[in-house]
Amino acid sequence: MWKIQWQDKKELSLARQIFLSLRERILAGQLAAGERMPSTRELAGSLGVSRNTVCEAYDMLLAEGFTVSRQGAPTRIARDVCLDYKPDGVATAPVKPEAGTPVWDFATGRPDITLFPWKLWNKMLGEAAGQLPPGQWGYTSPQGYELLCGEIACWLLRSRGMLVKPADIFITAGATQAFYLLVGLLHKTGAPFVLENPSHPAMYTVITDRGYPVQWLEVDEQGAIVETLTESAVSAVYVTPSHQFPLGGILPAGRRAALIRLARDNDFYIIEDDYDGEFRYAGPAISPLYSLDASHVIYVGTFSKTLFPALRLGFVILPKPLQEKWRHYRKYMDVQNPVLEQAALTAFLRTRAMDKHIRRMRRSYGEKRSCFLQAVQEHFADSVCPWGDASGLHVALQFPGAEFGERFVEESRAAGLGIRPVNRLYPSLHEQHRDKLLLGYGHLNAGQIQEGMSALRRLMERGDYGYVTRGS
């Protein structure tokens, strides 16, 4: 019973190994509460170690409360320290295996990180580590690395035509942290946050997890239908005007002006999420909503799609009245981002490596987009309508007459396809947009796109989803 499988680790003493072995048995219920422990001499003889070694192990058990001892009485197991005791004959519930990775994963929001210039990036990380002054390795401003804010302002001018002061830029750990902070910053008691319907589930989750109310803006081919905003008292309005997520519409000038007028008249802020505006394949980048009214629009940007998701760097452009409160919130959330990555990104922007990388990725994604649309045409002809294909890394495909529900999700997963119906982005299933699937292609190669579309065609042919496949 008392045998111990010794570990060949010099850093782990024999006494510590005895303690860990006995503790494991106590926690598992193999040594019951009140059970007498063998004497130190008896256990030492059984294990072939010195008595002092066993005494040291017993002292550890006693110090942490796993055993109790009185002078002249044997050491016993303490009460209420068992974690995993299960009576004999009681079967444990089987662990449900996790769903396997899809063979053809059309997940959205995934850039092709194989094309990122890793060698250059690692060089810039090394140079930043050697050049940063000592003061930057301590606690700094919740705003972020000052030089990075300046380079982001220059980048926004080059890529978007935006005139932004570096002092108004605040670095975040990606866009999700920006949303989390903004929801706390902008909430008004009893006033809902207004979201596009459908929209990215992250913003909805951040709001509803805090118990705040939500009102919906309906969406069509051109983005949010501003006229469906019926509340005058709102906490804030969240929109994706340059490439509506997930349907891909570009908010026209008339709707932009109407939304800004509402914000001015009713004293609320608009949160503009520009999550993939760099990748536009027909014409120049769309001008941000922020350019029309910097006093009522909060611009949120991220480098997760342009560089790589693990970088966890994004930014917000904040109107002056919100900046002091933002600093307070950020200070007591996590103070600041790691400075090394900020310094490397500063160099990446300053040397125009970012510009070169974006041009390269735009060409690559443009080729993948063409391959994707060609595969759609090949397998479904003109019976499927793409939405939002002019920019970004995903497309919404409309299958007229189809209804994609939970059964489609299960059957597509069984077929090796990672595809999400658009209506799963809603807080509950709605009738609208039930005929659309959301497919990301940025991280896939041409072969994966073709094979995945072929697998989707086979699934649609044998599945009863209300859509009759046609095409060559």
Automatic annotation (TrEMBL):
InterPro entries: Aminotransferase_I/II_large, HTH_trans_reg/aminotransferase, PyrdxlP-dep_Trfase, PyrdxlP-dep_Trfase_major, Tscrpt_reg_HTH_GntR, WH-like_DNA-bd_sf, WH_DNA-bd_sf. Keywords: DNA-binding, Pyridoxal phosphate, Transcription, Transcription regulation. The keyword Transcription applies. PROSITE patterns: HTH_GNTR (PS50949). It comes from Propionispora vibrioides. In the C-terminal section; belongs to the class-I pyridoxal-phosphate-dependent aminotransferase family. This is Transcriptional regulator, GntR family. Residues 12-80 form the HTH gntR-type domain. One of its GO terms (molecular function) is DNA binding.
